[in-house]
Every structure is written in structure tokens, then in C-alpha cells.
């Protein structure tokens, strides 16, 4: 496999499929959440093109140590992780974003193919175009998909089919699932691994419980990048519904709840405001909140038990030196 070898002739195209549900489904889901007694927007709606770029910026912030911890762990233990995971696999990247994390592992993993999944079609397509220039001979495919609903992928995206699969879910996105929902999602991955012609495994990152002040700062940084990321979901809702949210009427709220072991993010109305929502209207009182995200934090032992309950009992784990992040390699029995 030729890697990281850009060339001037036109690279072969990559396969791409838009597997998202229709815009009407997204609008209905948004509307139901915003009209609920306790208004909510699901965190997947953070990721329009601007939201994806803002999240990439969050990963560079000094308060957000998770990305650095993960990078240091791969730098220090990458060879060991690759040896355990196995080289020459089909790498399936969940929530690929700019594909940077996966691409950084290509020299270690020497994948037989790469399939990137993300909810933001335009952002992912552009990222795969850049990746194709760097890796002209690697089988590359992408799908715009809400994989929280379905992991059913066309066979032509999973090439080569003869290669064992390595599902890759880095960062801490598994924390966006409540514990039972996380178990159900991981169980779907376990079934996909078992059903793959050559078998499969999961390499997943998890943010671990740490001091409240550290987590509060990570989700409410001094530069306000996370606040912009949170507020931008209203712009996305305006386009999808349509609606007439004015982001100036709202402020970002984030805090760690130790009893629930999760960070909560909300948007709080600065004043009483009435918002038009797809032909309907909702009044928000001053101080009323829209819930936008939960990010659950785990202990390493608790997450290992979750993986086992989901049907992934064969495990290896690697802990960051500072103890705030872990990588797990897990597979069905």
C-alpha cells in the first residue's frame, strides 16, 4: 500500500453514499424535541459544516485535554495498540470528521481499506477528497449517515470484504449516550463484528471521571469556542425546520454533575422570547433552558463492564499517563 504519497495526476475517485434520512425526518425530530415540556436538541445536530469546524477547534483548546491525552497515548503505545488490533484491516471510522485521527494511524495499522462515517456530508466529502490526494492507492469510501440509528452499510463501501474489520470510535463520543443507550449501541457494533466475513473488533476511546473544575473548564473554555459550538446548533435548527432563533437571545451553560457522572450542556434564554418553529411557536421564559448534550464520564472498570455487557468481552486497555482517558480494544468472544 502506498501511503502519504501525493501525486499530480488525477487520483481515482472514492466511493461515497448519503444514507441520511430525509430532511423531513430531521425536522420532525427537531420539532418534537423543541416542543417537549423540557426542550431538547440532540447533539448530532451540532455537526453542520460550521459545527464540525468548531469542534475541530475545541480539540485544540488548552482546557480540552482529551485530544492531547489520546494523541500522546497513540504516540507512546501506538505500536503495541496496532499489534493488538492487527494490521491490514478494513478501518471503519465512526464520526470521522476531518479523518485526521484515522489518517494518523495509517502508518501503524497499514489498513487494507478505509470507510469513514459522519453525519456532515459536505465536511466529510471534502475531507475524503484531501485524504485521497495523500493516499492515492488506498481503497477509500465514505457515508453520510446517522450511525446512532443504523449501522447498515452498502457492501460496496466495506471493501475489501475479505479483510477483518476494525471499527474505530476515538475521542469521547460514546459519552453522548446514556449508559443503557451506550450498551445498545455497542451491542450493534458487536453484532456487526460477528457478522463480518473475516470478523471484527472495536477500538474505542473513553473520557474518564476527573475533577469537577477540570471538566467544567473543558466544556466552558475561556475563548468561548465551546459556547459558539453550542449556540451554532440554533443556526442549524433555523435552516432545518425552519425556525427564527436569534443566537443573541441565548447563552451557553455547561457543568459536570458528579452524582450522574456526566457533563450537561444547555442553552439558556437571556430574556423571555417566542420562537417560530416550522409554523408553530414556543414561548421560552427568561432562564428556561434547551438541553443540547450529555457527556457521560466513566471509570475504566465501569466501561470494561459495559463493553462486556454489550457482547464485547475480549478486551485490552491502555490508560493515559495522567489517568483521564483510556483506549479499549474489544471484540466478541
TrEMBL record:
<dbReference type="InterPro" id="IPR035094">
    <property type="entry name" value="EgtD"/>
</dbReference>
<keyword id="KW-0489">Methyltransferase</keyword>
<dbReference type="GO" id="GO:0032259">
    <property type="term" value="P:methylation"/>
</dbReference>
<feature type="domain" description="Histidine-specific methyltransferase SAM-dependent">
    <location>
        <begin position="28"/>
        <end position="330"/>
    </location>
</feature>
<dbReference type="InterPro" id="IPR017804">
    <property type="entry name" value="MeTrfase_EgtD-like"/>
</dbReference>
<dbReference type="Pfam" id="PF10017">
    <property type="entry name" value="Methyltransf_33"/>
</dbReference>
<dbReference type="GO" id="GO:0008168">
    <property type="term" value="F:methyltransferase activity"/>
</dbReference>
<dbReference type="InterPro" id="IPR051128">
    <property type="entry name" value="EgtD_Methyltrsf_superfamily"/>
</dbReference>
<keyword id="KW-0808">Transferase</keyword>
<dbReference type="InterPro" id="IPR019257">
    <property type="entry name" value="MeTrfase_dom"/>
</dbReference>
<protein>
    <submittedName>
        <fullName>L-histidine N(Alpha)-methyltransferase</fullName>
    </submittedName>
</protein>
<dbReference type="InterPro" id="IPR029063">
    <property type="entry name" value="SAM-dependent_MTases_sf"/>
</dbReference>
